[in-house]
Amino acid sequence: MKDSTTNEDDSNLLVIVIDTNPFEWEHPSAPLKLNEALKHILAFMNAHLAGRHDNRLAVIASHVGVSKFLYPTLNEPAPGSKVQMKKDANVYQVFKVVNDAVLSGIAKLLQDPRPTLEEKELGSSKIAASLSLGLCYINQALKADGMGHLKPRILVLTVSPDSSSDYIPIMNCIFSAQKANIPIDVCKIWGEDAVFLQQAAHITEGIYLRPNDPHGLLQILMFSFLPDMFSRNYLYLPGQDEVDFRAACFCHKKIVDIGYVCSVCLSIFCGFSPVCSTCRTKFAFQPLLPSAKRLGAKAVASNPGSPRPSTPDSRNVA
Question: What is the pLDDT of residues 148-161, one digit of tens each?
Answer without folding.
Answer: 789 999 999 999 98
